[in-house]
Amino acid sequence: MGNPKAFLTIPRQEAGYRPVHDRINDYGEVEQTLNTGERKQQASRCMDCGVPFCHWACPLGNRPPEFQDALYKGKWKEAYEILNATNDFPEFTGRVCPALCEKSCVLKLTLDAPVTIREDEAAIVEAAFREGFVQPRTIRRNGISVAVIGSGPAGLAAANQLNLKGYAVTVFEKDEYIGGLLRFGIPNFKLNKAIIDRRIAVMEAEGIAFKTSTPVDVEHLPEGFEAYCVCTGTPQARDLDIPGRGLKGIHLALEMLAQQNRVLAGQTFSKDERVTAKGKRVLVIGGGDTGSDCIGTSHRQGAVDVTQIEIMPKPPVGHNPATPWPQWPVVLKTSSSHEEGCVRRWCLNSKRFIGTEDGRVCGVEVEEVEWIPAPDGGRPVMKPTGRTEVIPADLVLLAMGFLRPKQPEFPANVFVAGDAATGASLVVRCIAGGRKAAADIDQYLQP
Ligand SMILES: Cc1cc2nc3c(=O)[nH]c(=O)nc-3n(C[C@H](O)[C@H](O)[C@H](O)COP(=O)(O)OP(=O)(O)OC[C@H]3O[C@@H](n4cnc5c(N)ncnc54)[C@H](O)[C@@H]3O)c2cc1C
Ligand code: SF4
């Protein structure tokens, strides 16, 4: 802890986003960076608490006080080594993690101004790549082969950990690129895809074999491997089975997001195939992060206007007494995409899609609902009010989450990790799940 009083004198400073007028017409990352001096000052705010809750709150068990101290002292290599000891891919979490650690930082709990842990993490890993601290290592091989199915953050973390332990790792991926939802879900304006390619190049140089465009039937796993790690994610999105669902112009969120990421990678689609918000009134159904990504993408594609509706009530701003620490604070989240312009509404249930004579969607009938607290303290009960209205829309995007996949009964040498094991989650939890599966596989394969 370099400066024991910094937290008293230095306020939290976020790098913030590029101005809306600057970012709205491109897909470049929206988040900016601080200069080195400011970044070190932010790191110095860490109080090195006796019992650091951030360790516990981070699913990876990252050690922020240790890397903040190294960062403050300008020991960038040491900071990266501390960070990388618990986190295979800080360049992903440093960009897209909701920073569970910061919600537990003592400076959050006392001053509502936590240390900028996530941003500091991103700064450390970017310096590490820039300065050449991230180099392929030579690994002693143990002669045992392991297959990883799926190349999202869980599969990549499992592959990385197993490879470092000496196993010969092959990653099978059904898509044409590596990365899972990092590649085809999360938009470029949150995570530039060159960041994934940079890490894959290191992993390949360290000996991992990646086989893209290679779907694997998990009930008939490829032969030649002593263990398997199934990291196939949550392939099925929750749909909205209400009248009019068959109309043109209604899409699952990933149909748009994945296609846009492919377009940015140079692929082309016919006019009929293209899912675009250009010149359209967009309605996003679902108030979560995927919905937010649909909003940002719609703006960049040239939407006329964007509305987002959510069936649940609007959460409170800032602090929610119903979810006190150490629970995850359920509070209103305003993303960079919301800042770019969007009408947000809550307590609306979708009743039916309305179409034009030629079969295109032109609106959605919604009904206001109320949420009555359950007498047993469980999930509140939805009560329809009978108050309906039609929200006009030429493009409707369904962003209502993903169904938890059911896995078959696997033999003892098959392990499951990431969203495939837990249901839809977070990048940080999937990296943690991949690491845990690698440790379990290693233990299983010990003679
Ligand atoms: C739009 C969107 C935005 C998100 N934004 C964030 C965010 O900002 N922050 C955050 O923390 N989390 C975010 N998430 C959640 C996060 O991306 C996921 O929790 C995480 O990527 C899941 O990782 P995974 O490795 O389990 O699976 P996935 O990333 O889904 O990867 C699974 C991989 O397995 C492959 N696969 C599937 N079946 C087979 C098969 N049979 N054979 C071979 N390959 C197969 C798939 O093609 C895919 O590449 C977001 C999710 C979405 C949808
Ligand atoms: S991975 Fe996420 S929760 Fe963990 S230290 Fe980094 S920002 Fe915090």
SSE layout and pairing:
Elements: H1 6-9, H2 20-23, H3 36-44, H4 53-57, H5 64-72, H6 76-86, H7 90-96, H8 100-104, H9 106-111, H10 117-131, E1 145-149, H11 153-164, E2 168-172, H12 181-184, H13 193-205, E3 209-211, E4 227-230, E5 250-252, H14 253-264, E6 281-285, H15 289-301, E7 305-309, H16 336-339, E8 343-345, E9 348-355, E10 361-372, E11 381-392, E12 395-398, E13 414-416, H17 419-422, H18 427-445
Parallel strand pairs: 1-2, 1-4, 2-3, 4-13, 5-12, 6-7, 6-12, 7-8
Antiparallel strand pairs: 9-10, 10-11
Helix pairs in contact: 3-5, 5-6, 5-10, 6-10, 7-10, 11-18, 14-15
The protein binds flavin-adenine dinucleotide and iron/sulfur cluster.
Question: Strand content of the residues, in percent?
Answer: 15-25%
The CATH architecture category of the largest domain equals 3-Layer(bba) Sandwich
The total domain count is 3
Q: By CATH's scheme, which homologous superfamily of the largest domain applies? A: FAD/NAD(P)-binding domain
By secondary-structure content and strand pairing, the structural class works out as alpha/beta
